[in-house]
Design goal:
The structure is a homodimer.
Chain A (H helix, E strand, L loop, with lengths): L1 H8 L2 E2 H11 L8 H14 L2 E3 L2 H4 L18 E4 L1 H12 L8 H9 L6 H29 L5 H34 L2
Antiparallel strand pairs in A: 1-3, 2-3
Helix pairs in contact in A: 7-8
Chain A binds a DNA duplex through α2 and α3.
Chain lengths: 185, 185
DNA sequence: TTCGTCATGTAATGGGTTACATGATTAC
DNA sequence: GTAATCATGTAACCCATTACATGACGAA
C-alpha cells in the first residue's frame, strides 16, 4: 500500500521509494532492498506498476536477461491503470485487519485520500482494538502487582501508559473528525 | 533469555511458560507454540534444560519416538547446571545489542538479577539509542513539516512524542539507579 | 457425555533481513 | 582520482506464525 500510494503521487525509482517509505512511517518498517526490489518485481508481474524508461519498458519481462553483468541505470516506476485501481481498492478496504498494528499506520498515512466515513470507522475500530489491549494490560498488571519486582512493574507500567496515550491520541483524532464533519458539511 | 530466566525461578511446563512470557513482557512477543516448543527442543539438545519426569528423562533424546501417536502428559522442564551458567552469561552480557528493541525489554524484566553497574550501563546505552532515534525523527519532521498532510504529520508527531516519553522514562530509571547507589552503598 | 481448557508437538508457509555483487554519479 | 553516496538487484538464511493433529482432564 505504501509503494502504491507513493507512486500514485509521482513516479519514482526504488531508492527514492525506500527513503519516502522510511520518512512516511517515521523510521518504523526499515524496508530493506532485499524486500523492496522483489516486491517491485512482483507488482510489475501483477501489472500494478510499470517501468517508465521506454527502452526498458518494451523488454520482455520474464526473460532472464544477462544475470548480473550489464549496465544498470535508474529504473523509474509508475502506476498503471490497474495499479491505480488497486490502490483505490486498498483505500476503500474496511474491516478488522485495518485496525491492526501492521496496517493502521500505513492507512493513516494515506488518510487524506480516504473517504471521511471510512476514516471515522477505522479510527474507531483502531481505538477499540487499542482499548482492548489496554484493558488486558491493566488486568494483567492488577494481577501481577505486588508479586513482581520493581523493574518488571516499571516495564509493564510504561507499556500501559503508552497504550493509554495512544487511546487518548485516537480520541482526539476522532473528535477532530466529527467536529470537522459538523463544521464543514 | 526469557525462557531461561523463568525456568531459573522454578521448573515448569511449556504451556505455563508461554503464559508467563506473555505476562512478563505485557503482551508483546506472543510466543506461539510453533516457536516455543522447537526452542525448548533446541535448548534441550544444547543441554541447557532437561525434563524432570524421571521416566521421560532417561529416554534417548534424538531417537525419533512414535511420531505422533502415544500418550502425552505434562513435560516439566528445569534448568541444568549449564543452563544456569548460560543464563548467568546472558545476565552479564553487555554491548550495543543489549540496548536494541528486541533485547532491552527482556533484559529489563530480569534487571533484579543483573549487576547494578551493568544495569546503569544498559539503561544509559538504551537511552542514547532512543535519543538518536528521537533526533532522527525530529529532524525528519522538521524537514517534512508544511509539506505533508495533517494525518501524516499527526502520525509522525505521535511517534516523536512516544520516543520522547521513552527517553524521559529511561532518565527516571537512571536517576533512581544513581540515587539508590548513593543511598545504599 | 460433551465442552472448554489445558497441553504437546510438527510441517508448511511466508516474509523479511543480511550479505553479497555490481555499477553510476557527484563532490572534493 | 578517489571516496561517498546513489542505485539495482539476488541468494542464503533466519525465524516466527499458521494450520494442523493429537490427547488429557475437569466441570456442567
Amino acid at each position: 500500500m505504501a509503494i502504491l500510494g507513493l507512486l500514485n503521487d509521482a513516479p519514482m525509482h526504488g531508492y527514492e521509494l525506500r527513503k519516502r517509505v522510511l520518512g512516511l512511517l517515521g523510521g518504523f518498517r526499515p524496508l530493506s532492498y532485499g524486500s523492496l526490489y522483489p516486491a517491485l518485481k512482483r507488482m510489475r508481474e501483477q501489472g500494478w506498476i510499470c517501468v517508465q524508461d521506454p527502452a526498458r519498458a518494451t523488454e520482455p519481462l520474464p526473460a532472464n536477461a544477462p544475470p548480473l553483468t550489464g549496465k544498470r541505470g535508474k529504473v523509474v516506476y509508475a502506476l498503471t491503470a490497474e495499479g491505480k485501481e488497486r490502490f483505490a481498492d486498498l483505500l476503500a478496504e474496511s474491516g478488522p485487519q485495518e485496525w491492526e498494528d501492521e496496517r493502521f499506520d500505513v492507512r493513516l498515512a494515506f488518510f487524506a485520500q480516504t473517504d471521511a466515513d471510512l476514516r471515522l470507522q477505522i479510527l474507531e475500530g483502531r481505538r477499540r482494538r487499542v482499548e482492548e489491549r489496554r484493558d488486558g494490560l491493566r488486568a494483567a498488571l492488577a494481577r501481577t502487582r505486588e508479586r513482581v519486582d520493581r523493574y518488571t512493574l516499571e516495564l509493564q507500567q510504561h507499556g500501559l501508559d503508552s497504550v493509554d496515550r495512544e487511546v487518548r491520541w485516537l480520541s482526539e483524532l476522532i473528535a477532530d473528525e466529527t467536529t470537522d464533519r459538523n463544521t464543514t458539511p
